[in-house]
């Protein structure tokens, strides 16, 4: 029997996820046209792997396939992963990453909505830990022709020196290890650098931001997380940069490179694994930015957003617990 | 000790009360040294020795140990035996000794050793206590070996890497060939947790199946026994 | 000074006892079902472990090394730890019944927490001096407490999740610990300058 | 029943038993220690010797090399913050080679400990990594046990190369304009080892005479 | 008088659907063929029946006497004959039955004698008793006895009259305000008098301009201290706490009453009923009900309490594709499980629902923690956390997250993209928690009684032993005296036999005294039940005795 | 070897004496755990757990003699609470101790009852009224539904009737989980 309320707003999970996919389209267009068209192939591989993985688990558990497969949440995870991975990652690695996200991180906890960790980010971390070499081979933007890209993705021989070029973050970081190097000398030395984060790559960040604006306008995400994340990242990078501009990159560089923009609007905002209270969202997102900056600048990994998200996912129950908003009528009450 | 209780002990140690799968004790060595079959199995065997001998010692001396200082005495005995094993490793398997590091002395704090001493050896005769120690230990050994095998295979694509530390002539088997990219997470700490989780889940599935089968075989008998109850 | 800070950061984050060094897992798995118990266990362990690090340093440095008795480390450390645990319990019972109520049930479990023996042994291996030993012990136990509390928070939430039957209970907790361990790998390298 | 009386008596009795157990089991331990001591010492020695054999062929010297060592204090040239040892190989009483403990501080994941053997002629006879934290599967090829190319491990390329011939300028990875190979994707590890080896060889050559002159077991 | 409105957080804006039924004036519903008047008209209290089958009653005649603090009187809605007193389904989600008086109207609709109450001459207590006697309960839905609300607390600053009518579809209050504004305000003034409030604020959602105009016109004649305030249309602005918040800025926490904060709130219908009760002495026997939804003739009707819904619906003419009926609004109402349920004092609306108007929600999906529900929740809760804990049956945690602050308004379920029936989970959890509480009380009582019984048995055993010892001593003394052999020394030595003997003796002795000793210290309820049982037993005994000779 | 023994002996003497002394000096008193466990048990006193009443069962759990899943009236909920209190893993009700049943109360068929008082003696909570040779009656609100009175009755006049659902004790049902029901 159905009980009250008998009327529902016409909203659906599918609609929410579809909006996220739509919001990713500008970035995908920029990616495919400016950097590597093979990303479209990767997106397809990831989508298939995600749906297959989801179907497999549901089958094993004897659950109905249709509702879970059609809610598009797996596709969101798959697309985000495909956009995070290096575009020339072999197809099997992309598929493996997506399967980790869907089977081990999402469905082991019972499927949509129940996973305490962000599936895409766990999979990214797992992959970079498992295959550090593969995961740090990035092509220079627009340098490889599509056939080469496709060959690499489909498992062609990998002549590393020919293709690999470190990402901007990686270059800065490894460059600074050399005695006497400064941000400026590295930037100048590496010809393939755009003014902030590498030629071609710098168009990606605004495209993600554009998608983020769409999500904000649609009310799918709230301002808290992107604002706190970008604000905190800008603040901490500015602090270091102002003190020592020779050895710390500018805030603009940090905001535009790596997973910052993608993270701010699409990853940090994952509703399932993130904090849920307004105050919690601010703390959560700002902490991610902080940790990500520390890992980027001082840790062993070139990009810190994924690990930072994962680390803060761990803290979510505590954050939520301690930032519960005051309930109507209890505003005067002492905090528990 | 008769055959029945021997079987009972073996079953308990190897499967039903398996330390790592069921009791979840002594997890640190299980997770920390299971990066390869060789490491895992050798620490497992070291633990077997300590468990068996300390069970034997405690069971033999149990009548002399005052109740209130039993724990310190047990710890003393276990620690002494652990040190003996530690020294032996240092002397005869020096490389392995270096690899296993602090996990040999940590056998002392392996709750399972103390737990068996306290729960079993302190109340039973020396022979069955020794058997209990050996079986509990062997339960740990097989788990460790399987875990080590899984992780080594996933992480490196080999089996028995480091065997030369024990049997100098032998060498590791490369299962997936030299081109295997290596799923490194397998031999890193997270891999330890995942591998054990999978083994526990697998054992849950097996246990559930066994329970179901048991229920199925008992089914025909059950209604007869139920009759009076259902009539009432 | 900075080296002391790095010892703490290293012990808490980079080489977290539970997730990286893989020590103290039995209480980590066993006493993390509820937040309150996790806090209690963490506090008790912090106290005992810090004390144990100090005492074991003294024993090692002033008794065992001068007499060339390094092989007795395991024995003497564990005996002393057991005694510290027992005496702590008695002292607390006597002086602060309230604290005893909170920590009481955890204290006996600490003797078999292998971190409590492992960290003093690592101290010896890393050739820490007294202050470093204490900091290392304190940092490690803070790392342990943090791990325990965070884990308990997640486990409380997992209570309601529709986990596949074979993974219910311990297995999913173990998987979660694995993801946490993966997350902590992100701190790798932060102690590089140490 | 007086609690105090029983308490006192119980204490004495339990202490007695405790002592008994302690004596017995400590004795057991000590006995084992005495028994295994020679074997342990032999193992430790053998471990060190095996390492040295890998960097310096036994035929190259005839002295008890491990006993002929000099302790170093803080030596930034060798990356030694806390000091280390240098072993001296002599052939028929003549200086033959130096085996140096070296640390490369700038590995990808921290310090890399090395042993480098340098002949009196300035030839590096071998380099081995003794401890490192480089990324497994990526940077750990600097350790020949982990190197996938078992037949020609990366670190083998230093053996027999004369530092005197190559010089500090060219003793670098190819990427930095030097002579030595590296594995792409993990240049940092290779660079750290190569540079540390160069510094060690340079140091050994420049301080050769002082090092050989120092008394055995002495401190420099 | 009022300077600004305070908002409340959350809330939703469903389509209002008021126009369907608000256009036509209130019509008087024809006399039904029979009336089923439940004796349970206010929450948690069932009235004691005062009539017997066959009895003739007049309209407004007392047929049920309220019991306990929360009881109110029940009256015959028209004149006629009581034909039956039997359980009938009630308008409750459970679909359970409750004892009801069935009256066959005689068609005359003849009033019992009734006189107005001259308020200035009576004490407050008398006035409250009057309201109770007239059976006035809240008509805003909760059915809480008005005299209790009026009687509670003093020092009240503001009386809020709730004319918000925020639920979609319902227009009965709207029509009432449009057509009978002076009466409503008269009732409001009486209530103000009774609770001693300084000001009266009538909150009306701004989608009812005609009602606002009518009320303002009526209010202007009453001078200062009364204001009709349009409030923004936002469900659930009509919730008591929300309306008070909007009008006064005061937030009333769960478990507290408005009176604690100097505010009290009544529905416009209640005010109207109070007016009738005081100014005419009429008990509450009819109310305005909106009939709307999938019907041919939506509108508002003045309906006698006890009219069965099936009969009422004929007035509006449900269309063919109607598949169910909702009593109340679509956000908080209940689906009727039977059309024989009667209109009660809290019935404001009956909606005919068709799949087109009220499509069944698509299957429930897992919660994605999107937070839409939290943004919609007027109680500022975290509904998904409540859901998570309720679903996992972790009731302790649910309470920690303020489950009982939830007013079950349905906003959260309305907005949830996963279409989770969130409110159902809260209702389930609340019910379980209440049941736990009852169980806990029962188990405490059982523990006490068990311990007491053990103590009693122990005591009896001791007494017996003492008695036996005394007897033995006596016997011995006798033997010593007379030299006779002891009659049954073994009996005294064998404790079991002695026990039986003692018990037998005691039983013989006490055969007449029937009060068993196991009924000490009991609650009043249980004592009453025992008295009942005793009475029944006496009767049976009597019969036995009668039969015996 | 001698130094080793001396040092360890020194440590042992100190610790042994201290612990031996302490074990007498700080003896543990009463066990509040039993009370906590007893508070969770339903106080039906039915003995299905294999102990004569709830308190003894609580004692047995506290001593580690009994498992936490032996009380059918407490049901799954009770086991969950015990598991929580004792930090153990939840396990389903042990089958040998019975199954969870809907709550019922005893009813005595007053026409058949011969007034033998046997049921009064059996009832652990004094929920039965009546004296010898008089027909007996169960006071329903006091009855815990333990069924202990059923067996002793020589004329089988006691039956257990499920507690009727009223508006007072009616509960909302657990919402059906659509995901499962679709399958
Ligand atoms: C990741 C995963 C692994 C599984 N592995 C097995 C397995 O090895 N053997 C098996 O019989 N079932 C396996 N299953 C299915 C479960 O045994 C079981 O059928 C299913 O989880 C029922 O869960 P439920 O009771 O929660 O619906 C697996 C399920 C999942 C999600
Ligand atoms: C997880 C991870 C681990 C890495 N570990 C090492 C390492 O151990 N040694 C190393 O030289 N480079 C390592 N790198 C690669 C460096 O960050 C950097 O990408 C590389 O040294 C620069 O590429 P190149 O060597 O081709 O110039 C690692 C990269 C990642 C992402
Ligand atoms: C969500 C919600 C919405 C409500 N909406 C209205 C409403 O629109 N009009 C109304 O009179 N009462 C409404 N009520 C009932 C009021 O909270 C309150 O019970 C009533 O105004 C008190 O007056 P009464 O005692 O005269 O019924 C609502 C209650 C809730 C919980
Ligand atoms: C705004 C938004 C952001 C999302 N971000 C992620 C993400 O970062 N990673 C991911 O795996 N899924 C993401 N999802 C999809 C979905 O929430 C995710 O698959 C769940 O975590 C699976 O339970 C996102 C969905 C939305 C609506
Ligand atoms: S609106 Fe629904 S899906 Fe979103 S958080 Fe609330 S309950 Fe979950
Ligand atoms: S039903 Fe309860 S939880 Fe949901 S919106 Fe209303 S008050 Fe909030
Ligand atoms: S089974 Fe439960 S209710 Fe019955 S006596 Fe035992 S503990 Fe009490
Ligand atoms: S009346 Fe019967 S069932 Fe009820 S409590 Fe007493 S003995 Fe138990
Ligand atoms: S084995 Fe480490 S705590 Fe138990």
UniProtKB/TrEMBL annotation, chain B:
<feature type="transmembrane region" description="Helical">
    <location>
        <begin position="183"/>
        <end position="206"/>
    </location>
</feature>
<feature type="transmembrane region" description="Helical">
    <location>
        <begin position="20"/>
        <end position="38"/>
    </location>
</feature>
<keyword id="KW-0472">Membrane</keyword>
<feature type="transmembrane region" description="Helical">
    <location>
        <begin position="127"/>
        <end position="147"/>
    </location>
</feature>
<keyword id="KW-1003">Cell membrane</keyword>
<dbReference type="InterPro" id="IPR010968">
    <property type="entry name" value="RnfE"/>
</dbReference>
<keyword id="KW-0249">Electron transport</keyword>
<keyword id="KW-1278">Translocase</keyword>
<dbReference type="InterPro" id="IPR003667">
    <property type="entry name" value="NqrDE/RnfAE"/>
</dbReference>
<keyword id="KW-0997">Cell inner membrane</keyword>
<feature type="transmembrane region" description="Helical">
    <location>
        <begin position="96"/>
        <end position="115"/>
    </location>
</feature>
<comment type="function">
    <text>Part of a membrane-bound complex that couples electron transfer with translocation of ions across the membrane.</text>
</comment>
<protein>
    <recommendedName>
        <fullName>Ion-translocating oxidoreductase complex subunit E</fullName>
        <ecNumber>7.-.-.-</ecNumber>
    </recommendedName>
</protein>
<dbReference type="Pfam" id="PF02508">
    <property type="entry name" value="Rnf-Nqr"/>
</dbReference>
<comment type="similarity">
    <text>Belongs to the NqrDE/RnfAE family.</text>
</comment>
Automatic annotation (TrEMBL), chain C:
<feature type="transmembrane region" description="Helical">
    <location>
        <begin position="134"/>
        <end position="154"/>
    </location>
</feature>
<comment type="similarity">
    <text>Belongs to the NqrDE/RnfAE family.</text>
</comment>
<dbReference type="Pfam" id="PF02508">
    <property type="entry name" value="Rnf-Nqr"/>
</dbReference>
<keyword id="KW-1278">Translocase</keyword>
<feature type="transmembrane region" description="Helical">
    <location>
        <begin position="71"/>
        <end position="91"/>
    </location>
</feature>
<keyword id="KW-0812">Transmembrane</keyword>
<dbReference type="InterPro" id="IPR050133">
    <property type="entry name" value="NqrDE/RnfAE_oxidrdctase"/>
</dbReference>
<feature type="transmembrane region" description="Helical">
    <location>
        <begin position="166"/>
        <end position="190"/>
    </location>
</feature>
<keyword id="KW-1133">Transmembrane helix</keyword>
<keyword id="KW-0997">Cell inner membrane</keyword>
<dbReference type="InterPro" id="IPR011293">
    <property type="entry name" value="Ion_transpt_RnfA/RsxA"/>
</dbReference>
<keyword id="KW-1003">Cell membrane</keyword>
<feature type="transmembrane region" description="Helical">
    <location>
        <begin position="38"/>
        <end position="59"/>
    </location>
</feature>
<feature type="transmembrane region" description="Helical">
    <location>
        <begin position="6"/>
        <end position="26"/>
    </location>
</feature>
<keyword id="KW-0472">Membrane</keyword>
UniProtKB/TrEMBL annotation, chain F:
<keyword id="KW-0479">Metal-binding</keyword>
<feature type="binding site">
    <location>
        <position position="116"/>
    </location>
    <ligand>
        <name>[4Fe-4S] cluster 2</name>
    </ligand>
</feature>
<comment type="similarity">
    <text>Belongs to the 4Fe4S bacterial-type ferredoxin family. RnfB subfamily.</text>
</comment>
<feature type="binding site">
    <location>
        <position position="153"/>
    </location>
    <ligand>
        <name>[4Fe-4S] cluster 2</name>
    </ligand>
</feature>
<feature type="binding site">
    <location>
        <position position="143"/>
    </location>
    <ligand>
        <name>[4Fe-4S] cluster 3</name>
    </ligand>
</feature>
<keyword id="KW-0677">Repeat</keyword>
<dbReference type="InterPro" id="IPR016463">
    <property type="entry name" value="RnfB/RsxB_Proteobac"/>
</dbReference>
<keyword id="KW-1278">Translocase</keyword>
<keyword id="KW-0472">Membrane</keyword>
<keyword id="KW-0004">4Fe-4S</keyword>
<feature type="binding site">
    <location>
        <position position="49"/>
    </location>
    <ligand>
        <name>[4Fe-4S] cluster 1</name>
    </ligand>
</feature>
<feature type="binding site">
    <location>
        <position position="123"/>
    </location>
    <ligand>
        <name>[4Fe-4S] cluster 3</name>
    </ligand>
</feature>
<keyword id="KW-0997">Cell inner membrane</keyword>
<feature type="binding site">
    <location>
        <position position="71"/>
    </location>
    <ligand>
        <name>[4Fe-4S] cluster 1</name>
    </ligand>
</feature>
<dbReference type="InterPro" id="IPR017900">
    <property type="entry name" value="4Fe4S_Fe_S_CS"/>
</dbReference>
């Amino acid at each position: 029997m159905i009980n009250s309320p008998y009327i529902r707003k016409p909203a659906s999970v599918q609609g929410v996820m579809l909006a996220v996919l739509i919001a990713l389209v500008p970035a995908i267009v920029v990616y495919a046209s400016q950097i590597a068209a093979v990303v479209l192939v990767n997106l397809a591989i990831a989508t298939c792997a995600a749906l297959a993985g989801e179907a497999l688990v549901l089958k094993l558990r004897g659950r109905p396939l249709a509702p879970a497969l059609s809610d598009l949440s797996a596709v969101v995870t798959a697309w985000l992963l495909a956009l995070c991975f290096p575009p020339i990652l072999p197809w099997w690695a992309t598929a493996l990453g997506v399967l980790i996200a869907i089977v081990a991180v999402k469905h082991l906890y019972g499927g949509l909505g129940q996973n305490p960790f962000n599936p895409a980010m766990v999979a990214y971390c797992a992959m970079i830990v498992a295959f550090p070499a593969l995961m740090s081979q990035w092509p220079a933007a627009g340098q490889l022709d599509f056939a080469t890209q496709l060959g690499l993705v489909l498992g062609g021989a990998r002549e590393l020196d020919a293709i690999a070029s470190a990402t901007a973050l990686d270059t800065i970081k490894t460059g600074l290890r050399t005695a006497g190097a400064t941000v400026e000398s590295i930037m100048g030395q590496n010809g393939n650098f755009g003014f902030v984060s590498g030629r071609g790559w710098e168009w990606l960040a605004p495209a993600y931001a554009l998608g983020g604006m769409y999500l904000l306008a649609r009310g799918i995400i709230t301002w808290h997380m992107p604002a706190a994340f970008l604000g905190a990242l800008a603040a901490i990078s500015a602090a270091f940069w102002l003190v020592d501009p020779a050895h710390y990159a500018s805030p603009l560089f940090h905001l535009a490179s790596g997973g910052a923009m993608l993270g701010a609007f699409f990853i940090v905002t994952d509703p399932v694994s993130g904090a849920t209270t307004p105050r919690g969202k601010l703390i959560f997102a700002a902490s991610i930015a902080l940790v990500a900056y520390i890992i980027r600048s001082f840790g062993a990994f070139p990009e810190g957003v994924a690990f930072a998200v994962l680390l803060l996912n761990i803290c979510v129950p505590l954050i939520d617990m301690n930032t519960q908003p005051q309930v109507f009528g209890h505003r005067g009450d002492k905090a528990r | 000790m008769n055959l029945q209780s021997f079987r009972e002990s073996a079953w308990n140690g190897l499967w039903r009360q398996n330390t790592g799968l069921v009791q979840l004790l002594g997890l640190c060595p299980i997770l920390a040294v299971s990066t390869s079959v060789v490491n895992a199995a050798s620490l497992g065997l070291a633990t077997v020795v300590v468990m068996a001998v300390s069970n034997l010692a405690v069971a033999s001396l149990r009548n002399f140990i005052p109740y209130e200082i039993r724990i310190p005495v047990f710890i003393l005995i276990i620690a002494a035996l652990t040190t003996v094993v530690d020294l032996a490793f240092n002397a005869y398997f020096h490389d392995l000794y270096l690899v296993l590091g602090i996990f040999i002395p940590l056998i002392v704090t392996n709750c399972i050793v103390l737990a068996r001493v306290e729960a079993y050896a302190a109340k039973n005769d020396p022979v069955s206590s020794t058997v209990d120690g050996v079986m509990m230990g062997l339960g740990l050994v097989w788990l460790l070996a399987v875990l080590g095998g899984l992780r080594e295979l996933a992480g490196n694509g080999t089996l028995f890497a480091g065997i030369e530390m024990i049997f100098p002539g032998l060498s590791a088997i490369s299962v997936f060939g030299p081109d295997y990219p290596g799923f490194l997470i397998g031999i890193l700490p997270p891999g330890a947790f995942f591998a054990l989780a999978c083994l526990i889940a697998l054992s849950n599935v097996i246990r559930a199946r066994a329970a179901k089968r048991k229920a199925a075989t008992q089914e025909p008998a059950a209604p007869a026994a139920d009759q009076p109850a259902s009539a009432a | 000074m900075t080296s002391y800070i790095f010892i703490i950061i290293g012990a808490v984050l980079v080489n977290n006892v539970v997730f990286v060094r893989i020590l103290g897992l039995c209480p980590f798995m066993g006493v993390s079902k509820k937040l309150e118990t996790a806090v209690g266990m963490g506090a008790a362990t912090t106290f005992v472990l810090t004390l144990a690090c100090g005492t074991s340093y003294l024993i090692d440095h002033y008794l065992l090394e001068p007499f060339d008795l390094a092989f007795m480390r395991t024995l003497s450390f564990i005996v002393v730890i057991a005694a510290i645990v027992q005496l702590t319990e008695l002292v607390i019972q006597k002086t602060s019944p309230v604290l005893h109520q909170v920590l009481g049930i955890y204290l006996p479990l600490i003797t078999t927490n292998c971190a409590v023996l492992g960290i003093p042994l690592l101290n010896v291996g890393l050739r820490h001096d007294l202050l470093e030993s204490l900091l290392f012990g304190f940092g490690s136990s803070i790392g342990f407490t943090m791990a325990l509390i965070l884990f308990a928070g997640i486990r409380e939430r997992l209570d309601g999740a529709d986990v596949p039957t074979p993974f219910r209970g311990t297995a999913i907790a173990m998987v979660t610990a694995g993801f946490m361990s993966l997350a902590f790998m992100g701190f790798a390298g932060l102690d590089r300058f140490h | 029943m007086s609690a105090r009386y029983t308490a006192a008596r119980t204490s004495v009795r339990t202490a007695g038993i405790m002592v008994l157990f302690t004596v017995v089991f400590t004795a057991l331990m000590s006995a084992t220690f005495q028994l295994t001591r020679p074997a342990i010492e032999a193992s430790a020695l053998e471990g060190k010797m095996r390492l040295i054999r890998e960097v310096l062929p036994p035929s190259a010297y005839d002295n008890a090399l491990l006993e002929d060592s000099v302790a170093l204090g803080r030596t930034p040239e060798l990356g030694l913050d806390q000091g280390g040892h240098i072993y001296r190989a002599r052939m028929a009483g003549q200086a033959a080679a130096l085996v140096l403990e070296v640390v490369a501080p700038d590995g990808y994941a921290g310090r890399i400990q090395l042993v480098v053997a340098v002949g009196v002629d300035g030839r590096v006879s071998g380099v081995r990594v003794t401890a490192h934290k480089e990324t497994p599967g990526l940077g750990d090829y600097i350790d020949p046990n982990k190197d996938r190319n078992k037949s020609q491990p990366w670190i083998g390329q230093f053996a027999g190369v004369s530092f005197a011939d190559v010089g500090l300028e060219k003793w670098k990875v190819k990427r930095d304009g030097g002579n030595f190979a590296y594995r792409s994707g993990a240049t940092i590890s290779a660079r750290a080892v190569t540079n540390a080896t160069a510094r060690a060889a340079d140091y050994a050559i420049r301080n050769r005479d002082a090092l050989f002159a120092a008394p055995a077991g002495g401190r420099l | 008088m009022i300077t600004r409105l305070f908002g409340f957080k959350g809330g939703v804006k469903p389509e209002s659907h008021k126009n369907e039924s608000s256009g036509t004036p209130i019509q008087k519903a024809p006399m039904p063929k029979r009336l089923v008047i439940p004796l349970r008209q206010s929450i948690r209290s069932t009235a004691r029946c005062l009539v017997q089958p066959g009895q003739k009653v007049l309209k407004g005649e007392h047929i049920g006497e309220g019991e306990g603090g929360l009881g109110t009187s029940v009256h015959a809605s028209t004149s006629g004959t009581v034909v039956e007193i039997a359980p009938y389904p009630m308008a409750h989600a459970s679909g359970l039955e409750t004892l009801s008086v069935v009256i066959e109207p005689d068609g005359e609709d003849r009033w019992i004698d009734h006189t107005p109450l001259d308020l200035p001459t009576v004490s407050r207590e008398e006035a409250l008793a009057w309201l109770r006697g007239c059976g006035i309960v809240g008509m805003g839905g909760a059915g809480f006895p008005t005299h209790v609300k009026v009687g509670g607390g003093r020092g009240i600053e503001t009386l809020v009259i709730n004319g918000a009518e925020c639920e979609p579809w319902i227009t009965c209050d709207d029509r009432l305000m449009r057509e009978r504004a002076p009466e409503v305000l008269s009732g409001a003034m009486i209530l103000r008098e009774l609770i001693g409030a300084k000001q009266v604020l009538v909150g009306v959602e701004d989608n009812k301009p005609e009602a606002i105009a009518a009320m303002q016109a009526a209010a202007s004649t009453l001078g200062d201290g009364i204001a009709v305030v349009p409030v923004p249309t936002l469900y659930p602005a009509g919730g008591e706490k929300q309306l008070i918040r909007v009008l006064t800025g005061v937030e009333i926490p769960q478990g507290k009453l408005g009176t604690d904060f100097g505010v009290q709130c009544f529905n416009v219908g209640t005010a109207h009923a109070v007016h009738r009760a005081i100014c005419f002495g009429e008990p509450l026997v009819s109310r305005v009900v909106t009939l709307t939804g999938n019907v041919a003739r939506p509108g508002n009707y003045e309906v006698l309490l006890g009219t069965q819904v099936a009969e009422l619906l004929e007035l509006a003419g449900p269309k063919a594709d109607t598949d169910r009926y909702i009593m109340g609004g679509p956000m908080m109402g209940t689906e009727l499980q039977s059309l024989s349920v009667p209109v009660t004092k809290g019935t404001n609306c009956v909606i005919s629902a068709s799949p087109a108007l009220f499509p069944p929600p698509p299957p429930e999906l897992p919660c994605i923690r999107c937070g839409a529900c939290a943004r919609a929740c007027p109680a500022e809760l975290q509904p998904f956390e409540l859901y998570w804990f309720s679903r996992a049956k972790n009731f302790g945690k649910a309470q920690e997250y303020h489950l009982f602050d939830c007013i079950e308004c349905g906003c959260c379920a309305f907005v949830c993209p996963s279409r989770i029936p969130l409110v159902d989970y809260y209702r389930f959890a609340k019910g379980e928690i209440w049941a736990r509480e009852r169980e806990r009380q029962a188990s405490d009582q059982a523990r006490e009684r068990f311990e007491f019984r053990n103590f009693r048995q122990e005591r009896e055993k001791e007494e017996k032993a003492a008695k036996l010892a005394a007897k033995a001593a006596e016997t011995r003394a006798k033997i010593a005296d007379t030299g006779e052999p002891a009659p049954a020394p073994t009996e005294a030595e064998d404790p079991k036999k002695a026990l039986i003997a003692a018990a037998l003796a005691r039983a013989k002795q006490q055969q007449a005294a029937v009060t068993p000793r196991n009924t000490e210290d009991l609650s009043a309820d249980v004592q009453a039940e025992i008295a009942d049982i005793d009475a029944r037993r006496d009767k049976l005994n009597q019969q036995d005795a009668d039969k015996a000779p | 070897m001698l130094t080793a023994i001396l040092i360890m002996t020194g440590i042992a003497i100190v610790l042994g004496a201290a612990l031996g002394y302490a074990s007498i000096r700080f003896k543990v008193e009463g066990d509040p755990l039993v009370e906590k466990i007893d508070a969770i048990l339903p106080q039906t006193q039915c003995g299905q757990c294999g102990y004569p009443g709830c308190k003894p069962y609580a004692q047995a759990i506290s001593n580690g003699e009994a498992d936490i899943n032996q009380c059918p009236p407490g049901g799954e909920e009770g086991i969950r609470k015990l598991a929580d209190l004792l930090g153990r893993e939840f396990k389903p009700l042990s089958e040998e101790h019975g199954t969870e049943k809907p709550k019922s109360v005893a009813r005595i068929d007053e026409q058949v009852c011969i007034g033998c008082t046997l049921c009064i003696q059996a009832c652990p909570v004094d929920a039965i009224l009546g004296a010898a040779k008089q027909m007996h009656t169960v006071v329903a609100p006091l009855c815990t539904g333990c069924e202990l009175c059923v067996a002793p009755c020589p004329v089988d006049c006691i039956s257990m009737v499920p507690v009727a659902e009223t508006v007072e004790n009616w509960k909302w049902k657990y919402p059906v989980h659509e995901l499962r029901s679709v399958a």
